[in-house]
């Protein structure tokens, strides 16, 4: 089922530029001036699914908003600056996407970002819970394996928690898996569809290559190398940028793809499936990324893991310790926060 219905998502960006599916949605981007925020905002401004684009950051947002507002698409762009303007930025938002935070530098793991980004995500999601508690919340800020539990605990504290509306955006892992397999097999990557499950860091990233559409096969050594490359693809970019940041453009693309899929589903389109890191009962981990059937109210159905190969079962088992540790770290952060 996953591969059949997810095909639409791979062309979600392409479709988002065609005006046939015009709809009205207010989307807020928190961290809109950053390396991911700017290209993400550009892609959202280009989409007929967005009628109102609200850009928030602690610096440069008026300039980013002025720049984007000159583009000849209908989305109205407004920039908001600093903590006192955050409630206004969020007012009436149906979907909030959060790429705010510091990027990885060479030698850093996503976990090294924890202290800075945990506080940023807690502050921003608190404002969401207070101002637009019904909105879909899409978290890009790393480490996602901890920032999603942080978001959930913040919403719980304020009594507005809905696990069907809080998403850790792991789409970049899917996009990378599709690309790398397409390259290896001489296929158009836009026609490749691989579910990626687990979490969004190192060995918690688990591509289910056995469930790829079209069906592909690799000898074991190549399968292991490919899996390793998908798991460490972020580090590949961090190293290539040599201290100038992490994956921003591909992440903006992947973030936009997820947002467009979610907006499509909210508008009543059926059969929309994307993987995301969410509250889950599919494994022993309380949060886990799997293919999700999206609907008007967020997660309509968790499609689970499907049939795993022996190699994939081993990867899932090996990821559990790290995943649970990162989740607990996020939950404890909110408990101990003054």
Task: Summarize the SSE layout with pairings.
Blueprint: H1 2-10, H2 12-16, E1 26-30, H3 37-45, E2 52-57, H4 61-69, E3 76-81, H5 86-90, E4 95-98, H6 114-131, E5 136-139, H7 144-157, E6 166-168, H8 171-185, E7 196-198, E8 205-207, H9 220-231, H10 233-240, H11 249-266, E9 272-279, E10 287-295, E11 298-302, H12 310-335
Helix pairs in contact: 3-11, 6-7, 7-12, 8-9
Care to describe what's here?
With 338 residues, the protein is α/β, with parallel strands linked by helices. 44% of the residues lie in helices and 17% in strands. It has helices spanning 2-10, 12-16, 37-45, 61-69, 86-90, 114-131, 144-157, 171-185, 220-231, 233-240, 249-266, 310-335; strands at residues 26-30, 52-57, 76-81, 95-98, 136-139, 166-168, 196-198, 205-207, 272-279, 287-295, 298-302. The strands form three sheets. Strands 3-2-1-4-5-6 form a six-stranded parallel beta sheet, sandwiched between helices. Strand 4 (95-98), helix 6 (114-131) and strand 5 (136-139) form a beta-alpha-beta unit. Helix 3 (37-45) crosses helix 11, helix 6 packs parallel to helix 7 (144-157) and helix 7 crosses helix 12 (310-335). The longest helix has 26 residues, at 310-335. The radius of gyration is 19 Å and the shape is globular. The model is unreliable at 1-12 and 15-20 (pLDDT under 50).
């Amino acid at each position: 089922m996953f591969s059949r219905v997810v095909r639409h998502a791979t062309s979600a960006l392409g479709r988002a530029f065609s005006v046939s599916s015009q709809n009205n949605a207010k989307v807020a981007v928190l961290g809109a001036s950053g390396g991911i925020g700017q290209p993400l905002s550009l892609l959202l401004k280009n989409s007929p699914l967005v009628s109102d684009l609200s850009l928030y950051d602690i610096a440069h947002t008026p300039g980013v908003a002025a720049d984007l507002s000159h583009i000849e698409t209908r989305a109205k762009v407004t920039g908001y600056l600093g903590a006192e303007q955050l409630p206004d930025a969020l007012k009436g938002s149906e979907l909030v996407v959060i790429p705010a935070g510091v990027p990885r530098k060479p030698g850093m793991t996503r976990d090294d970002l924890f202290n800075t980004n945990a506080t940023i995500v807690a502050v921003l999601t608190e404002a969401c819970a207070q101002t637009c508690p019904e909105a879909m919340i899409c978290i890009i800020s790393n480490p996602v394996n901890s920032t999603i539990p942080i978001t959930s605990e913040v919403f719980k504290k304020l009594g507005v928690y809905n696990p069907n509306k809080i998403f850790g955006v792991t789409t970049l892992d899917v996009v990378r898996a599709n690309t790398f397999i397409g390259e290896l097999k001489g296929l158009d990557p836009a026609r490749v569809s691989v579910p990626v499950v687990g979490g969004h860091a190192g060995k918690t990233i688990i591509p289910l290559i056995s469930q790829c559409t079209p069906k592909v096969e690799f000898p074991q050594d190549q399968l292991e190398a490919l899996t390793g490359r998908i798991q460490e693809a972020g580090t590949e970019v961090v190293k290539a940028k040599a201290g100038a940041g992490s994956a921003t453009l591909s992440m903006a693309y992947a973030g936009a793809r997820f947002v467009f899929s979610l907006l499509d589903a909210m508008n009543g389109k059926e059969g929309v499936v994307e993987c995301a890191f969410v509250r889950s009962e599919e494994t022993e981990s309380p949060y886990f990324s799997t293919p999700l059937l999206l609907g008007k109210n967020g997660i309509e159905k968790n499609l689970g893991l499907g049939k795993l190969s022996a190699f994939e079962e081993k990867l899932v088992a090996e990821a559990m310790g790290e995943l649970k540790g990162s989740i607990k770290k996020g939950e404890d952060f909110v408990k101990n926060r003054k």
